[in-house]
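Lab notebook, bench 4. Still working through the backlog of constructs that have no structural model yet. Next entry is a single chain of 288 residues. Request: give me the structure tokens for it.
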Amino acid sequence: MHHQNISYHQNKKLGKGLPFAIVPSSILLEGTDIFAPSKRDFHVLFWFKKGTGTYYIDFQEYTFQPNTLMLLSKDQISYFDTLDPEQVEIQSIVFTPEFLYRNDHDLQHMFQFSLASHIEGMQYLSLSEKDSTFFNLLSEHMFEVYDHWKSPQQEHAFYHWISLFLIQVERIQKQHQAIEKFSSSDQLNLKFQQLLEQNFKKEYKVEFYLKALGINIKALSKILKEKYDLSPKAVIDERRILEMKRLLKGTSIPIKEIAYDMGFDEPTNMVKYFKKRTSLTPNTFRKE
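Model written out:
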């Protein structure tokens, strides 16, 4: 990862100060925000319309292709390598979770941004020509609302357009899963990942997840071994370590507060835990 400071973006500082925005490629690529490691308190959809390039999510490198959609969860640390505005076209849509998710049903129904892993077919989607045409139509409506902001009704309109956008994303996701024969083990892994995302800060013992899923250690171990070549405990530890890295690099929160937030009784216990798994102390990782 580049040795740059990580910037923190908050939705109240965006554009019109609204809980959502849609940004065309011309504006997106002329700024520096997407090229500096960033942590956000809002979700981002990047639609790659033209060109190829490299982006980084949570300290891992990925490559994007034309006509693909990438969905970033809030709090993920991400940035792009330098892109040529003449060769690349990217559009972004951003919104706060609170703006879109009005109840528990929305959280389950709409696209799952909260998955810890950058799971293929979940956060990165290839679009057909028909998908692109539909998304272009929705984008035009969103631009119209965003560019002519005059009344509270506009917020209501944007909410419906972006909901339609995400419902279509969900349909594409399910189509991908059907083509790839989304198995029962994949379904169970997804349930485990969702459960982990909700509880990893306080629940770090495998037993909690086995009980919640209603399975035994052998079944979960088999699935995670095939999927990630890791044990259940290692997957839990990886998610916890990732969050610590995000907080250490993406915020100035004192290490003591991070330790308590992550469920440690004493900050020294987090230091030992982190060093054992990264060979660095939290303080060294933050500074390097």
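Notes after review: The two ends are 11 Å apart (CA to CA). Strands lie at 7-9, 20-23, 38-40, 43-50, 53-57, 60-64, 68-72, 77-80, 89-95, 124-126. Flag for follow-up if needed.
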